């Protein structure tokens, strides 16, 4: 068997040259990862991986319309390249006309680094982080707590070529750090997480100090019943809820009356005020520290993405502008169906427009309420209202007269992020955050803490 082609831009060109379809899109994703794991104040494993995934999208014109076929494979060798292209063509010829068919994108300037070697990560990304983590282990051990967690860094270089002449490339770094501190008897647990591009802006000592405070709060245990409570949602929890809102913001689904963004009687709620707070929910490929691909990369069609839109520019977009619903996600096809502007989904999400107040300052002005750490196991209950359910985790704290007075039991919640925006009475300072629930799929977020006067804790949970 022959070896994998060494240069991704060359394999893209070869695949395009082999194509006999009416149209062709080739996406080469070069992956490299490095990771560390630890438990009980000691490193346990580490590793580095490399890989390539090649996706070929063939389009075939017919009397009834254009069909598409998509085939993806990993570790493709030069001998396997032509069979992969032929498989995509066969899939297209065997399929019916694609509903989302559009002319392939053209006239986008070539990326100047298209022929450069892919970016790669390595264990060197942890050169400063790993010693600092070791020092945090020593402090935690001396303080009677145990640290568990992992750090992962990934670099994906994506090369996109089309039969219409597009030659685009984007390098996406993505780093996550999750750290749990536990009491030796495992009855108390606290969590902190960070998203990073290069691990130069994360401080294990600061995170350990934060977790030590939270474990101290948990020394006093208070049982509370289910009910509605004034609740402070930290940025990570806000991110998890609003990312799900973005994923549910399909313009077509809204126009067809299937979502929370559908207007009674027909149409969408674009132009409607969602919150009295002057909040703006936006995505921007050039957002400092949260940079993401400025063009569409679609390995399949469905929902709010289309393989025919590959390479389409994806500019900065305000989904909610000063409290008003401004955009819903659309492809070129769904924009034509709905009359909405073309608005591709992007790989980051920012909510700003709140006050310049930290979460600690918001706690200090709370008479009585709950302070959450994070959410998990979030699931949709009702798409018509975007009602979600999920659980709190790793620390729910009671705030009384501006101070945290103890830890309370966990809860199951039932809330809609759209409803929460409408009822929120305060938003704090926007800061980069790691969405805990969705960190396997979406990490580039910046959110403020939110104060919700009547967050619905629907039942008590026995989780830690």
Structure notes:
This protein is of the alpha+beta class and 464 residues long. It contains nine helices and 20 strands. The protein has two domains: 207 residues, PmbA/TldD superfamily (PmbA/TldD fold, 2-Layer Sandwich); 243 residues, no CATH class. Helices cover 20% and strands 38% of the residues. The strands form three sheets. Strands 3-2-1-4-5-6 form a six-stranded antiparallel beta sheet. It has a six-stranded mixed beta sheet with strand order 11-10-9-12-19-18, with helices on one face. The longest helix has 16 residues.
Question: Can you summarize this structure?
Answer:
The protein is an alpha+beta fold and 464 residues long. Helix content is 20%, strand content 38%.
């Amino acid at each position: 068997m022959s070896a994998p082609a060494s240069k991704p831009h060359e394999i893209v060109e070869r695949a395009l040259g082999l194509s006999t379809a009416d149209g062709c899109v080739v996406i080469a994703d070069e992956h490299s990862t490095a990771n560390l794991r630890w438990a009980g104040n000691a490193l346990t494993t580490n590793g580095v991986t490399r890989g390539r995934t090649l996706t070929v999208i063939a389009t075939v014109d017919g009397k009834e319309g254009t069909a598409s076929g998509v085939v993806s494979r990993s570790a493709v060798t030069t001998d396997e390249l032509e069979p992969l292209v032929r498989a995509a063509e066969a899939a297209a010829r065997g399929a019916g006309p694609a509903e989302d068919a559009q002319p392939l994108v053209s006239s986008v300037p070539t990326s100047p680094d298209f022929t450069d070697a892919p970016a790669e990560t390595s264990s060197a990304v942890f050169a400063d982080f790993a010693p600092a983590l070791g020092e945090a282990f020593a402090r935690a051990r001396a303080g009677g707590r145990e640290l568990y967690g992992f750090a992962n860094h990934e670099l994906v270089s994506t090369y996109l070529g089309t039969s219409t002449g597009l030659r685009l490339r984007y390098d996406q770094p993505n780093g996550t750090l999750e750290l749990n501190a536990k009491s030796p008897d495992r009855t108390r647990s606290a969590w902190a997480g960070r998203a990073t591009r290069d691990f130069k802006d994360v401080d294990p000592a600061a995170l350990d100090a934060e977790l030590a405070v939270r474990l101290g709060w948990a020394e006093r245990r208070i049982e509370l019943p289910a009910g509605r409570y004034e609740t402070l949602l930290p940025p990570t929890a806000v991110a998890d809820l609003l990312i799900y809102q973005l994923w549910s913001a399909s313009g077509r689904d809204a126009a067809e009356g299937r979502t929370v963004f559908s207007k009674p009687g027909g149409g969408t709620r674009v132009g409607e005020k969602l919150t009295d707070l002057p909040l703006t929910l936006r995505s921007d490929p050039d957002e400092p520290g949260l940079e993401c691909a400025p063009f569409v990369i679609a390995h399949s069609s469905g929902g709010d993405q289309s393989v025919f839109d590959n390479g389409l520019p994806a500019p900065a977009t305000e989904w909610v502008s000063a409290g008003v619903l401004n955009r819903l996600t659309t492809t070129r096809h769904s924009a034509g169906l709905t009359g909405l502007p073309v608005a591709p989904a992007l790989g980051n999400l920012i909510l700003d427009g709140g006050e310049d107040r930290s979460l600690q300052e918001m706690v200090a002005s709370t008479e009585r309420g709950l302070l959450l750490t994070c959410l998990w196991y979030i699931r949709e209950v009702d798409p018509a209202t975007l009602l979600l359910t999920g659980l709190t985790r790793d620390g729910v704290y009671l705030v009384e007269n501006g101070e945290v007075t103890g830890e309370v039991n966990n809860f199951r919640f039932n809330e809609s992020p759209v409803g929460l925006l409408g009822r929120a009475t305060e938003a704090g300072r926007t800061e980069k955050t790691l969405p805990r629930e969705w960190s396997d799929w979406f990490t580039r977020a910046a959110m403020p803490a939110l104060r919700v006067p009547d967050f619905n804790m629907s039942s008590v949970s026995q989780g830690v």
